[in-house]
Amino acid sequence: MTRPNILLITADDLAGDTPGSFGGRPDVMPVLDRLAAEGMRFGRAHVPAPVCQPSRSALMTGRWPHRNGAEGFEPIDEGVPLLTEAIGAVGYRSGILGKVNHLQPEDRFGWSFVRQQAELGMGRNPQAYGDATAEFIAASEGESWFLMANAHDPHRPFHGSAAEREGYTEEQQASYPDPSRVFTAQEADPPGFLPDLPQVRQEYAQYLSSARRCDDVIAAILAALEDSGQAERTVVVFFSDNGMAFPFAKANCYLAGTRTPLVVRWPDQVPPGGVNDDHFVSTLDLFATFCEMAGAEIPDGVDGRSVVGLLQGRGEPGRDHVVTVFHETNAGNRYEMRSVQDGEWGYIWNAWSDGETAYRAENMAGLTWPAMTDAAETDTALKERTDFYQRRAPEELYRLTTDPHALHNLVESHGRTGDPDSAQALARARAHLRDWMDATEDPLRERYPASR
């Protein structure tokens, strides 16, 4: 089999259910939805860590953050093999567009082509992405290539927000266009884990508009690939590095924080219209997947597993649940979390929750969190929810089939649940997490209460 080119397109802070092909509005990301229809979409895909640099570092090493050194915004440990090194050994030329400084140390990756955020209209200019993609492909003539194209949307500042006006100069704002579709607050129904408040609607509309501009970037990149004549020998993969930057999503191990809209289009290998809603996969698996596609050796110590078999329609045991982790915010504040999701149940261990420590993260910037706390002054239920968000509980368990937005924690203060089904689910999740912590030598495994 001829070695394919690999085009990896990533979004920044896009929720797993925003695209229409993953349950969202069909008018937000129509280009991504078409890409999904041309390949396979994974309905149970997660990122290993719900914040950008650890998520991306895990992808590029195939290792959990505590095993590659990049638990937060640190460089990857020296000696940990990188994806660009593995596929470079079999002749792949690698390039990167945007988010360059979120893979450290930069010089280790050996990029032959680099475009920084400022060269791409603050990472928000579709034409700049299309032009850069075309330039990279043309310069790679005769070579197999890997291009990591990282859109900066829908990361904050959102389109039309005060933060955008205040955070970017007029020149910077003039370097990128408005989205091809701008949403209004009236049509922006917030997800169920957020209250339906006017300011929440306003900010969610700004987020949806930014997601649409991400789709515009995807369109420009794919058009450049098509114009190059290399689309038929190129694997296209899309995912988001974590959930949207709102409370109960990004920088948390809730479903809304770790679920990602993973799409793979592989001409002649993956039939169009493929859907895999049965197997849990992680973007940690993409390292081994890309190595197998490229015919490269998978280094020792890689934690992820190739999904090529799943892409080709073969089942695979051991994919009935997924583990996710969180270590620290972009400000360097540590809030250690571990989670197990199995489709029906979602379990989280908050190692940081002691009843006194207060959680604070970038997902609380903007309009939504202040609106929630203001409304909580007269709304008892919302007061309980905002208080819980800041303090949490040592353990959380949610029956996602009936409580998909994780609103009702089933673990009582004494670490038990109130019914046999949830008790069995809690025991099972604890066992899964204990086994994972032992297998990966998680530094917190001795602190985990269920290990005693």
Automatic annotation (TrEMBL):
Domain Sulfatase N-terminal, chain residue ranges per copy: 4-295
Keywords: Hydrolase
Molecular function as annotated in GO: arylsulfatase activity
Biased segments, Basic and acidic residues type: 156-168
InterPro entries reported in the protein's UniProt record: Alkaline_phosphatase_core_sf, Sulfatase, Sulfatase_N
PANTHER family, alphabetized: ARYLSULFATASE FAMILY MEMBER, ENDO-4-O-SULFATASE
Protein's name according to its UniProt entry: Arylsulfatase A
